[in-house]
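does this look right to u?? cytidine-5'-monophosphate version
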Amino acid sequence: MDQLTLYAPAKVNLGLKVLRRRADGYHDILSLVQTVNICDRLTFRRVDGSDIVVECPDPEIPTGADNLVVRAARSLMTWMDMKTGFMIHLEKRIPAGAGLGGGSSDAAATLRGVNRMLGGPCDRETLHGLAAQVGSDVPFLLEGGTAVMEGRGERLRPLQAALLDLVLVFPEAAVDTPWAFQNMKIGLTDEAPYIRFLNSLPAFERLDVDRLIDSLENDFLPLVADRFPQVGAAFEAVGETSPRAASLSGTGSTVYGIYDSPANAVRAAEHLSKLGFRALVCRSLPAPLEDPEL
Ligand code: C5P
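got this back:
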């Protein structure tokens, strides 16, 4: 196989609670995560030599050694103790710094893509281990679909695929994830309805969307809306479009609403666009994304 194209979907955190700070500098979290049909596109090509080269037409995206695509490809090569040259073309559709896991999803697609092009030397467990080293959200994005995320994000409990109509709003703000984790106040959260709800969900259970909506909470919303008034304004505007629920994805800055029909989501997005917000309708994307052999 000389060339392969894969799609890397965005994720939305449908609620997020920070449980505790850990000795390793990370935080234990609990979050219901869902992939949606806004995707980056990656094309992998084997080339002579041993370099991993990422090309991206978007000048805002750095393509050097810190790019998660490069880190993911290198981690796989290191594990295999070999060096193969790859040219990886990255077409961005997922806004960066938006809490939608764009870079993490590109890394997950790279692990899948490079592994597949090399004949599949890594099994699923090994890929998950490498993914967790690249970033906390990367293991989930290897799988996609609907899952409860625990630990620092790498421990996953998959659920039956949920069908959700969403509107995403992108305020002009890039939230620095380490800043958000460092500055949020961890409350006494054990009894939060969201925590009780997620803890009560066995693996492969159907998601009760009404119960999710009743308990939905994101611990970063007060902090991020306070620091970035445009995020607070987006949250209020979404709240006025009659969503079933509205919140922030991850540490933001994306604000989303969940709607009871595709038509209501379209109406809400049109209204928000008229108010000057950058709004996009999307749907949940069920697992598996592709790659049944992974
Ligand atoms: O794992 P990842 O590299 O995506 O995390 C980026 C940063 O976000 C970490 O360096 C850490 O500051 C913070 N983080 C955290 N707890 C998590 C996930 C991320 O403190 N569960």
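The longest helix spans residues 102-117. idk if thats expected tbh
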